[in-house]
Specification:
- This protein has 202 residues and is mainly β.
- It is built from two helices and 19 strands.
- The protein has helices at 185-190, 192-201, and strands spanning 3-6, 11-15, 18-22, 33-40, 43-50, 53-60, 63-71, 75-80, 86-90, 93-97, 103-105, 112-117, 124-128, 131-136, 139-142, 152-155, 161-165, 168-173, 179-184.
- It has a four-stranded antiparallel β-sheet with strand order 4-5-6-7, with no helix packed on it. A four-stranded antiparallel β-sheet has the order 8-9-10-11, with no helix packed on it.
- The chain is globular and about 50 Å long.
- The two termini are 16 Å apart.
Length: 202
């Protein structure tokens, strides 16, 4: 499998025991945020958000070809769900790109700070200044039971979310009613390295 690395000013791909520097033409790479999936013309793509641009890298004819999809304001977070929908949080707005390549805005939520999804689930988790929201099947709902003051958000197996607050680490389970369980902040302190790893690979 491939491992993508975003350094301060470059992109690298680890494939079959070797590292390759990837330079997508004149497109920016500094401070890149990445997500995999969301195909371009039916081909799987690695999506990059950097320098106010959102673009896809697609493997074609033994090389990566860059497809610029959207020039936008700075992107705060990027994610791809199981259905291949690309989601971005940009200046408080939630935007998505469907299979048809068209972009859509989602006015149901405002002041969006982070988004997280898993390639194994259709669930999208959205962190805003007002709290946590869940998207599935075209519907966005607030998670009323979620603790306040979320500082970090990750997607976990089965569509669940992991959230971190000053008081603990919590798992949020999607369903007809959303369940929240957690552990206290002493355990969170011990799990700090794990959360750092999740942040790097999530």
């Amino acid at each position: 499998f491939d491992v993508w690395l975003a350094l301060d000013d470059s992109l690298h791909l680890w494939r079959k025991g070797q590292s390759f520097a990837i330079q997508p033409g004149v497109l920016p790479v500094a401070g890149a945020k990445m997500a995999f999936g969301a195909p371009v013309d039916g081909k799987p793509a690695t999506w990059i958000a950097a320098g106010g641009a959102v673009y896809a890298l697609v493997w074609e004819a033994d090389q990566f070809v860059a497809y610029q999809s959207r020039a936008t304001t700075p992107v705060d977070a990027i994610a791809v769900d199981f259905e291949g929908t690309l989601w971005i949080a940009s200046e408080g707005k939630l935007l998505s790109r469907g299979f048809d390549g068209k972009w859509h805005g989602h006015a149901e939520v405002t002041d969006v700070e982070d988004v997280s999804a898993s390639p194994d689930a259709v669930d999208l988790w959205i962190r805003t200044k007002d709290g946590l929201f869940h998207h599935k099947g075209g519907t966005i709902r607030p998670v009323g039971a979620a603790p306040a003051g979320i500082t970090r958000l990750f997607s976990a197996a089965g569509g669940a979310a992991l959230i971190v607050t000053a008081t603990g680490l919590y798992r949020v389970l999607p369903g007809r009613s959303i369940t929240v369980d957690g552990i206290d902040k002493e355990v969170v302190g011990q799990a700090g390295h794990l959360l750092d790893v999740l942040a790097e690979i999530g």
